[in-house]
Fold this protein.
Amino acid sequence: MRETELMKQYEEETGNLAIIEGEITSKYRDWKSRKHKQKTKEKRKQELEQAQKTSKKIKEQFDQGKKVDKDYDHLIVVENLHKTYLLGTTAIAALRGVDLIIDKGQFISIMGPSGSGKTTLLNLIGGLDTPTRGKIFLEGKNIAMLKDSELADIRRDKIGFVFQFYNLLPQMTALENVMVPLHFSGKLSKRGKEKRAMDLLSLVGLEERSHHTPSELSGGEQQRVAIARAFANDPAICVLDEPTGDLDSKTGIQILNLLRDLNQRGATFIAVSHDAAVAEFATRTLHMRDGKLVREGKVAGLKETDIMELERKKDAQINKEKCKNKIYQYLFKNSGKKKIKIANISKSIPEPILKNLPIHFNDILKEIVEDGVIKGKVEKDVLILE
Ligand SMILES: Nc1ncnc2c1ncn2[C@@H]1O[C@H](COP(=O)(O)OP(=O)(O)OP(=O)(O)O)[C@@H](O)[C@H]1O
Ligand SMILES: [Mg+2]
């Protein structure tokens, strides 16, 4: 506004003159300065309101782009996932646009050369790290939109991790390491936690090493502790980075059999592995290269590899011998009896032996009688001794 117009406004507002005897009055000067400050304040306020409006709009657009939830039926949906690590001024593109859908109960194996982004992909799916770009939906929920505490709850209750380098707590014993996730879930009493952890350790064949710390265990044993720990809270999703890496082939197969049992009970597995046995075992095999999924090999279902079949048959044969010994023990205890119900004999055989025989129990009993080891005959469901 021009000075003359301002003076006019002053004179109209206050009824005073702006110029007396050719001099600008100090009252006018004060008025002008107040007016100026007021105007600046108003302008600032307007600017601030405008900025707030713009930032709200940007946030809304951003959130809309991220989409809070999707009515996905799939367990996991990965959309255009990118991850770039910054090392000083160098950017390393570890993932460069991964799209992937995983359904409940699948057993996925991921293969690929070192540095192709396998561990990075697992960490992102497991909510341990955040993507640079792209989205991950877990049961339809965008994990980027979850609060840290919500994500921690999901990690604790739904996801079991077996890390490439085990990540066991060095000061704690094997038992205590397995108890850590049980402690966080807070569902069991101290004794309940101990029992559960001990059961898990015997599941991986380590009940006798429960009081050893990681430094007192071999690589394969540490890996088995890590596997027991991953299963502690019965996770719906198991993320495994090289689960059989440090295991000899027999233990590797035992672990794979364990994974298969859990998988058949409904848990979903995503396993990174260089081990061909794992790939043969999986329902889907994905191949990664330079941060991308390049190829997917499909297989019909859970398959048994040749070596697994061999081990199973060997175990079955051993069980047959154990079963025969148990039969002799039973007959010795019941010597004097002439007629014995076959069901009563089979009841005396421990479940794991009975369930894993190469032939039916009744046929084993017939074999013994036919070989003349015991004198008598099998009639329907009764053993008649001479
Ligand atoms: N925290 C990190 N900071 C910087 N770069 C990283 C980081 N983690 C991984 N990288 C880089 O990202 C790329 C992918 O790494 P990633 O560990 O996912 O590969 P990988 O397929 O699991 O390899 P390996 O088979 O050797 O375990 C590599 O080039 C790696 O050097
Ligand atoms: Mg890796």
The first strand starts at residue 19 and ends at 20. The chain has 13 helices and 15 strands.
